[in-house]
Every structure is written in C-alpha cells, then in structure tokens.
User: What shape does this take?
Amino acid sequence: QLQASGGGLVQAGGSLRLSCVASGLSFDDYAIGWFRQVSGKVREAVACITKDGATYYDDSVKGRFTISSDHAKMTVPLQMDSLKPEDTAVYYCAASFLGGASYDYWGQGTVVTVSS
Assistant: This one.
C-alpha cells in the first residue's frame, strides 16, 4: 500500500527526490514518515508530515531535506539537497493512522548512495 522510489547514486552536494505513493488507504487520515537504515544499524526517523501538514525533521537533515504531501495524488515526496556521504542508506516510507505512536504500513526500501 506504500511504494517508495527515487533512490540512486549521487555525488556529495547533489540532490535526489524520493517519492512515496500510497494506495488502498484513506490518505487524509495518515501521517507519513520517511526513515532510513544503514546495514547493521538501527533504523532512524528522517522526516514526518502529519495529516494536517505539520512537518518534523531529524536534526541531521534539517535545512537540507524537505518533506511535503500531495493529497490529490496520495504522494509524499522527500526532496534531499546538499547530500552527504553519511546520508547513504536504504530509505523507507511508512504511514501512521492519525499520527499514532506506531506506523501501520511500510513501503519497500529505496537505496540512496552518496559518493564523496
């Protein structure tokens, strides 16, 4: 019900735009989050947008990443600028019903690799 895409290989300082497309759920009732995970490390939250449009960012990406939502298209893009090698990870999107404590649906990952 969630499909993440847009990953790829980019040089440090470059940009990528990830996309999370939802289907089969009442999009207006969900908060959508982007997460990332490096092999062997704990998955971390990167950015989140609530059903009302409020946004939250991890300190490591503030000022570089922008999350938005298009309710008509049921998509949540994550614009990533000024990428750093430490942004390299598998990125996932997830949906939380009414912005609750847990995420109910997860998309498959999309790989982002930032070369130095």
Summary: Residues 21 and 105 are 12 Å apart (CA to CA). The chain has no helices and eleven strands. The two ends are 34 Å apart (CA to CA).
